[in-house]
Write a structure and sequence with these properties.
349 residues, 5-stranded parallel sheet, 17% strand, elongated
């Protein structure tokens, strides 16, 4: 017996592949995952009419527990349909792995998802998207994690997709303007200077449906708008290639003045740290030279080595070799500190 994972894609009941339709018609049990993305009762009814049998709509707890599906799949062919691609959701992969460990054969029918649709809809290059993160009003993903993902992607000139929370059991969904407000509040807390009113973002609503909307611009021009029903996602672009800019202007009708380079504001934490340590080491070296002259002590060879290590740190920093830069400035500080440890010279930091 087999557990089938079927992707419904982005176009509702009409998006189900013919091969998936054949499998679902022959299956003994058909479930529909309704928690990862909203689906209307009309689409559910349409899907049931196409398949010719009842579809049981299930939520997150049912899929995460998975025991009922696994027990049924031991004896019958069971189908789990999910909007988009079924393996985008980690809960589905977990269920598949558990089924395989129980000796149950699994089979996946893939389909289009928001992750592959957004590059095509916006014109942003697919290979320039970094880590994806989900923003929740309350939940298992900390706000710090969301901010760190955005920061890391921007420092590598990559685009960030932020999926916005949707709760099937309560009907709650995080509105894009609330999400933008949350991002601005994160900046107040974490203070890395990557998000402000001038940050360029793209808001994607109901991609694949007849009512899909794509809006782009600075946060200050988008934060007060109503984006309607879910699902929603936000893209924070990184450094844009000129062909991406052309696509945004052509496809999304975004004005030039709304498009900014978000990556230009993002500084790698190691860069700031190394620059601070280099400045501190140079000041300490200058004071050490003055004190050694005053006390008539000769540490010129050691000081030259310190100077070389500081210069190496700056050179590695400019080359983007941050680990080597940190090691070099550490050696410089260590040499200066050695004079203090052997009580030959008092070093002021």
């Amino acid at each position: 017996m087999t557990l089938f994972f079927i992707g419904l894609g982005l176009h509702g009941a009409k998006g189900i592949p013919l091969i998936s339709l054949e499998i679902a018609k022959k299956a003994d049990k058909v479930y529909l995952d309704a928690y990862t993305s909203p689906i209307s009762q009309y689409e559910i009814n349409s899907l049931q009419n196409l398949i010719g049998k009842e579809i049981l709509t299930v939520g997150r707890d049912f899929i995460e527990d998975g025991l009922e599906i696994i027990n049924q799949a031991r004896k019958k062919d069971v189908v789990l349909i999910a909007l988009g691609d079924p393996m985008v959701a980690t809960t589905h992969m977990d269920l598949r792995l558990r089924a395989e460990k129980y000796g149950i054969k699994t089979h996946v029918i893939h389909n289009s998802s928001i992750l592959c649709a957004l590059p095509g809809e916006t014109g942003l290059h697919v290979y320039k998207f970094g880590k994806i993160v989900t923003l929740m009003k309350s939940g298992s993903t900390p706000r710090a994690t969301v901010y760190e993902v955005i920061h890391e992607n921007l420092t590598h000139f990559l685009h960030t997709i932020i999926l916005l929370e949707y709760d099937h059991s309560t009907g709650f969904f995080l509105k894009p303007n609330e999400a933008l407000e949350s991002l601005l509040n994160m900046e107040k807390d974490f203070k890395q200077g990557i998000i402000d009113d001038e940050t360029f973002v793209i808001i994607a609503s109901r991609i694949g449906s007849e009512s899909q909307i794509l809006s782009g611009g600075k946060i200050k021009s988008l934060i007060d708008k109503d984006y309607g029903e879910p699902p929603h996602a936000i893209i924070i672009p990184g450094k844009l290639h000129f062909t991406e800019i052309d696509a945004l202007k052509t496809l999304l009708k975004i004005d030039d003045e709304q498009i900014t380079d978000n990556s230009s504001k993002a500084k790698i934490l190691a860069v700031n740290m190394i620059k601070k340590y280099v400045m501190s080491a140079r000041k300490a070296l200058l004071k050490a030279r003055e004190r050694s002259e005053a006390e008539k002590k000769n540490f010129n060879d050691l000081f030259e080595n310190v100077e070389c290590y500081i210069s190496d740190a700056e050179r590695f920093l400019n080359m983007g070799k941050y680990e080597l830069a940190i090691l070099s400035i550490g050696y410089a500080e260590g040499l200066l500190d050695s004079l203090r440890f052997i009580k030959e010279l008092e070093i002021e930091w």
